[in-house]
Specification:
globular, mainly alpha, binds magnesium ion, binds adenosine-5'-diphosphate
Length: 211
């Protein structure tokens, strides 16, 4: 049955599904990073998701924000590299913005993504158009903010669709951040690996909420 407001326990279950989906997508993420970077994104994310599962499975939550904060903390401490820092920041800062919430609804979704994305941009320096995960996150945040008056099912569906469109749009961009920037115009034609991860995460959240 479609879900409207998630409890902390449901939020934890959803994020464990996100971890499993990323682990399963390791070959896809590896290939995406091989095309533009050094090919370590899939294995790094897999390591991060195993740490996330260990942390979440061992914890009980009263705050939905704390689930995301622990998700980010586990990524940050287990992954290293650029993506450990940027994904860790995304979930830690996003989770902190909803740490006082005991349910996850459309407003929490919007706060999570917009606060998390702002922190990623502040700390990592990427802007929309630089061909990074921000290109999936920024449109997803805009969609989530416009959907706070809708049901969680509709808000999450619109948010995931915007994230996927952002991932697709990153294909045509020229990388100006991170490792891929040395490729210049040769980076055109491939999506950014981090944006591919973001799209998988959002789609998995959508599948959980709509099922
Ligand atoms: P590394 O770049 O250390 O090899 P990964 O391959 O795991 O790390 O992750 C690369 C992804 O991290 C990129 O595809 C991009 O989406 C994201 N990324 C890297 N640097 C930044 C940054 N400064 N801001 C936002 N995202 C970034
Ligand atoms: Mg890499």
């Amino acid at each position: 049955m479609a879900k409207e407001q998630l409890t902390p326990a449901e939020t934890k279950t959803m994020m464990l599904k996100v971890a499993d989906a990323i682990i399963e997508a390791e070959p896809i993420l590896t290939d995406a990073d091989r095309a533009l970077g050094d090919g370590d994104h899939g294995v790094g994310m897999e390591r991060g998701m195993n740490a996330v599962k260990e942390k979440l499975e061992a914890s009980e939550y009263e705050s939905v924000g704390k689930v995301f904060m622990d998700f980010g903390m586990a990524m940050m401490s287990s992954m290293g590299g650029a993506s450990g820092a940027v994904f860790g920041t995304l979930f830690r800062a996003g989770g902190r913005s909803i740490k006082d919430s005991s349910t996850f609804g459309p407003q929490e979704l919007a706060n999570l993504i917009t606060s998390g994305t702002e922190s990623v941009m502040d700390r990592g320096g990427a802007k929309p158009g630089d061909k990074t995960m921000v290109d999936a996150l920024d449109p997803a945040g805009t969609a989530a903010n416009s959907a706070t008056g809708q049901s969680l099912v509709d808000a999450m569906t619109a948010t995931a669709a915007a994230g996927v469109a952002g991932r697709d749009a990153s294909e045509a961009m020229i990388a100006t951040m991170g490792r891929a920037k040395t490729l210049g115009e040769k980076s055109i034609g491939h999506p950014d690996a981090g944006a591919v991860s973001v799209a998988i995460m959002l789609n998995t959240m959508k599948d959980f909420i709509t099922s």
